[in-house]
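Handout, page 2. Input:
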Amino acid sequence: MQGTTDISEGPDISGLAKRVVEIVREAGREICRAHDYTIFTKEGHENYATEVDIRVQRLLVEKLSPLIFGAVFILEEEQETVPALGEYTWIIDPIDGTQNFINGYRHSAISVALLRGTTGIFGVVYNPYVDELFSAILGQGAFLNGHPIKVSNRPYKTALIGFGTASYYHDRAELAMKILGRVFTVGCCDLRRAGCAALDLCYVACGRHDAFYELHLSPWDYAGASIILREAGARLEALAPDSWDYTKAVGILGANPIIFDQLRKTIEDIILEKE
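Output:
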């Protein structure tokens, strides 16, 4: 679990958030007009980045750096090791859902989170293709394009559950498929796999999904959405045997409070069987 903090001290988060939204929208325009770009192979099975990922990340770092002097950056691209958290830390994914981007699937997002110490105090996730911007400031609620959002209250039998397959890590494929089958046969309404964890978590925040889980997500995948999800009233925790840590890859479950415990038990029973 994350710590607690008083955001009344330090920079004006509301004013800063408005500037971050402007910067993220600018970066979104860079994604939408991109074409004829180079694709790079990264570590892991079929794990790619593009020159657009790099260009967007550099734009974000350049524009965000002056907003909080000395803030640490945790970045998906061009960073070999994850640094320790600072007094303030930006966590950035320039394009979450790069494979979707490459394939023209038009379901990708920019994710930016701001932490004070170990606590997420501001998050934004932006899908530029449909101009949907999810945002939240700690203690002030969650929003989609400026309109308040909250999680659903649907029970498990009518729940639509999003999931990820940890697709870069095929050693986890058998476990992921076993969990998927159990989650479905326990009796939810249906399942969804869209390939962009940041948006999937935000879909829980606004009630389109009732839950989302994935066995291996890096901090840049979940940081921005985690703040939005909690502010929308969801429960969000690391899956066993992991513990919440913004500097590490962890298994994640976010869900409306009605189904959270049942879904966590269903998933963790299978994980712990394998341990």
